[in-house]
Amino acid sequence: MPSTLINVSNRLPVTVQEDQILKSSGGLVAALEGFPEEHFKTKWIGWPGAAFPDERRREEVERKLSEEYGYIPIFLGEEEAHGFYEGFSNSSIWPLLHYLPNFLRYERAWWEDYQTVNRTFADKVLETAKDGDLIWVHDYQLMLVPAMLREAAPNLKIGFFLHTPFPAYEIFRCHPRRSELITGMLGADRIGFHAFGYLRHFSSTVQRLLGIETGLTQIANEEHTAALGVYPIGINARKFQETLDSKEFHQRQKEFRLGHQGKRLVISVERMDYTKGILRRLEAIDNFLANSQGDNDVRFLFVSVPSREGIEEYQQLVQEVESRVGQLNGKYATLVDSPIHFVHASIPFVDLCALYALADAALITPLIDGMNLVAKEFIACQQEKGGSLILSEFAGAAEELFNAFLVNPYDSEAVAETLKGALALPEGERRERIQPMREQVLRYDAKHWARSFIDDLVSGAVKDARTAKGDIKEVREVVGRTLTAGKRIALFLDYDGTLREIEREPNAAKPTAELEELLHRLSQHPNLDLTILSGRSQENLEAFLGAYPFRLIAEHGATWRPPGQKDWERLDKNINYAWKEALMPILRNYEQATPGSAIEEKPSSIVWHYRKADNEFGRWKANQLTEELSALTANHPIKVRHGKKMIEVTATENNKGAAVTRVLAENDNYGAILCAGDDLTDESMFELNIPYLLTIKVGAGPTQARFRIKDPVTFRKLLDDLFIRKTCSDRE
Ligand code: GDG
Questions:
Q1: 32 or 13: whose pLDDT is higher?
Q2: How far is 75 from 58, CA to CA, in rounded Å?
Q3: Does ligand 1 lie within 6 Å of residue 346's CB atom?
Q4: 3-class state of residue 586 by DSSP
Q5: What is the pLDDT of residues 170-210, one digit of tens each?
Q6: pLDDT band for position 691 (50/70/90)?
Q7: pLDDT band of 26, cuts 50, 70, 90
Q8: In 3D, which of 354, 365, 370 has the Cα closest to residue 389?
Q9: pLDDT value at residue 353
């Protein structure tokens, strides 16, 4: 078990004032408080809530926070903090994550600040973390931190949790820094979301923006895999329970009951934020009051905590809400009472609990919300009363709170009617609705949430065991030793995606001058026996590489040209390809239905390419086609391979592994055998069980290979180091 969990969030869970440190009561702190000390020591890195320009005071705060709480403060300059927080985080990313591209503002200087501040956080983590520590980065303010950490310390275990929704690709693509942001998140070993919909959107956005083939449980990104998971956050159940049992709570409840005597209380609690749907809710209340025909025993109580007051949109919202509340009160007030009580302030926790407990209904109607803890808190406090929860269907909490009255917050008439219906329900029925939800909310609390995420992060639950774990140093050592001993090495190298970067147009992927030089030198090496194998046709391979003397194997082993010879020889003479004709109409259907896709026919196979189709649609059709073909060919010696942006149907006997075995059967005097490839068709080489075999996967994705190299450039560099520079320096 790792020794320390380092939480990294924009704000520390404290507010440092002139002479005191106030601990905040957020769900996150509570969640992590529940961890037994023997398993985790928790440290926290974040901003302490003020700038502290005086250096002596800064040092003092730093010492105090570290000694008393294990917190490590990040101090930011005022201007930098503004660009990072009010600017990029809250005026640029926040609106987009909440489906409001019209609110998106972007300034290059903010982006600079965002990067600098994310770098400051990452540096602080690197300074603090020791081997075996777990790092848990929180939320949209720190999206770049995981990749920064991964780059500097590839062995750290990094988790990232997004507390907001993740929107559909069409929305997220509007952000000027969209690719950098998701690439930053992908540095994590595990990325958590509140709801499955957000995870799905993220996965599809990565696929469409970065062209990476993604799944719903993991995304193979360059040299490592980021696992994805859904972890709905809960409340600090123990803290609520303790407060409900306290004297002070009962006292406050009594006072409030008196203050609202004769009224049915409908409460709304939130940060003053345009995502929370306050104006639409006021519209619904207008509707409700207009239809209540003088029956004015309902009182609406709004607790709106001031939020992000430095941002223009938030200032405007406050003005609009205040003016609308005034208008409605003017319209519906009597000489002794007004229907809406609006409190624009944060109230003490115990008061909040007393209000939750006393309310006949909670009207929680965000236009969109990652989770919404208020809904769960209201339920937790309703121990006797049986109040009704009217909840927006666009809050993450709606997926869990199965007995809530779900509403569309944009449909103000329906919200008003639902509220009316909920208030009219007999008390017994209301209690029956809320009690099972209460049990659930108390059981699946914040502690449960944090534990599930951390357990999965530690165990790497969904992680594919098939990830190349070997250290490339071993390849260097084995090759060095073999060459020094004067022994021969067999090289089996795939072409596209391994020696040469993949091109959108396959014909454009001919060898560059640099690759030609490398191949020339490799072919001159006295101790090397080089084979290039590919799925390409014989003609294609001949056109690209025909001038070299080494062995060429085309069509996954169906045909070859032995070293030093001009003529190709088919190795598949005994194979019957009658199935090609039968399957062709199916592939034609997919070609027609998927714009940008195309069929290629080779003597030994049919290939459906979808590289030029829309990333996501292409992948979807490809999965369908694979399924359809696999079902049809299940009992035949036919292999359906889903490679990079293509599906190839060929005879089972044609595979690169079999081709390698064939070559080795004729020549067995090698001190080492090195196979390298980048896609699924290369796995048949990696699976071979032969002595002295070194297997290298080039690029991302699960593999049986022992070693991994990032990309073709790095792979060419490795070949150069292993066989060319080494030889030159030996000769010098
Ligand atoms: C973000 C996501 C996600 C409110 N007024 C007072 C007060 N509060 C407390 C509530 C609750 C918290 O603030 C608000 O949490 P929410 O979850 O409702 O919303 P956000 O602040 O937008 O939080 C959200 C959350 O992160 C967690 O992942 O659920 O979707 O937007 O705990 O009780 N607390 C006190 N006085 C108040 O006046 N003491």
A1: 13
A2: 8
A3: yes
A4: helix
A5: 999 999 999 999 999 999 999 999 998 899 999 999 988 98
A6: confident
A7: low
A8: 365
A9: 97
Q: Look at residues 156, 170, 163 and name the one whose alpha carbon lies nearest to residue 192.
A: 163
Alpha helices (H) along 70-218: 78-81, 94-97, 108-128, 145-152, 169-172, 178-185, 196-210
Inform me whether the pLDDT recorded for 730 exceeds 70.
no
> Atom 4 (ligand 1): residue with closest C-alpha?
270
Is this model's pTM higher than 0.85 or not?
no
Centre of ligand 1 to C-alpha 468, Å, is: 42
The tens digit of pLDDT for each residue in 161-171 reads: 999 999 999 99
Question: What's the 315 CA to ligand 1 centre distance in angstroms?
Answer: 19
CB atoms within 10 A of CB 548: 17
DSSP states of 19-74: S-EEEP--HHHHHHHTS-TTT-EEEEEEE-SS---SHHHHHHHHHHHHHHH-EEE-
**Ligand 1 atom, smallest distance to 25 CA:** 39
In order, the DSSP letters of 425-469 are S-HHHHHHHHHHHHHHHHHS-HHHHHHHHHHHHHHTTT--S-S--
CA of 311 to the centre of ligand 1 (A): 19
Minimum-distance ligand 1 atom for the alpha carbon of 276:
22
Protein residue closest via CA to atom 19 of ligand 1 = 372
Query: For ligand 1, atom 39, which residue shows the shortest CA distance?
Result: 349
